Amino acid sequence: MKQNFTVRQGALDGVEAFLSVAQHRSFRRAAAELGVTPSAISQAVRALEARVGAALFIRTTRSVGLTEAGERFLSRAKPAFEELVAAGEVARGLGQRPAGLLRLSVPRAVVPILLEPLIASFSKAYPEVEVEIAASEELVDIAAEGFDAGIRMGQFIAADMVAVPLTPPFRLVVVGSPAYFAGRHRPLRTDDLRQHACLRWRRSNGALALWSFNDNGHPIEIAVSGPFIANDFPTMLGAAVEGIGLAQVPEPIAAEGLRTKKLVQVLKPFAPVIPGVFLYYPSRRQILPKLRAFIDHVKSSRKQ
């Protein structure tokens, strides 16, 4: 059976005073170490003894010694209190300088294009920060999953997040390989996609994404069909390079294939512009120095 558990208010009161008296065997020297009066130390120890239910010290006019209960309390309380102090120092250090583990949730496609150069320069500038990248297409709850921040395309970021642009806006482009177009007419209008094999992207919620276009300033979405479904852009782009069908992907992802002529862009007049890629994090969370340093590094890199 599950039991209710609460930490008693003031449970640690007097422990530091007790440890100091036990170390110095003197209420006066303990008071000097802690910067309080001897009477304040005596009151703190008496209150602790009252809560424990046993005398912890043997007091005489000439000396202070530990009772058996005091010895046992000291053996358990001293290492525990030292751990608490150490934990506070670690937390204080993370709150004062860029250090610790920085966890980022990112789509796989942005790692080689965007993150690898950033991480290399950031790690060199901030050697005390460890960067962990969880590459996944799934839209995770970054706060619940223990991530410091996430990276996603702007249209997928919740309104209550703080978003920092990593790229300018870019187009969604439709591409296919020269091998695919051999013996086929290239689509000139969006309706022509009905005669083509279109590679589809399955979102993290299980739905198949529609293809988005801009028709003379009017946004339209089209349900396409084809022989291949993937849950990330790099896999879909690879299938397009192999000639399996047409793919609609962010332009930066297709840039190398277009440059090397492994891919050909079609339906250029209908390519929609989307906001770009953003770093995002919860607005209600206090920003630790490690994340603030990464945000500043991102901003400075964009200016170069």
From TrEMBL:
Entries under PROSITE patterns matching the protein: HTH_LYSR
UniProt keyword Amino-acid biosynthesis present: no
CDD domains noted in UniProt: PBP2_CrgA_like_5
Keywords, in A-Z order: DNA-binding, Transcription, Transcription regulation
Domain of life of the source: Bacteria
Positions of the HTH lysR-type domain: 16-67
Transcription in keyword set: yes
Family listed: Belongs to the LysR transcriptional regulatory family.
Protein name from the UniProt record: LysR family transcriptional regulator
Source organism (scientific name): Dyella flagellata
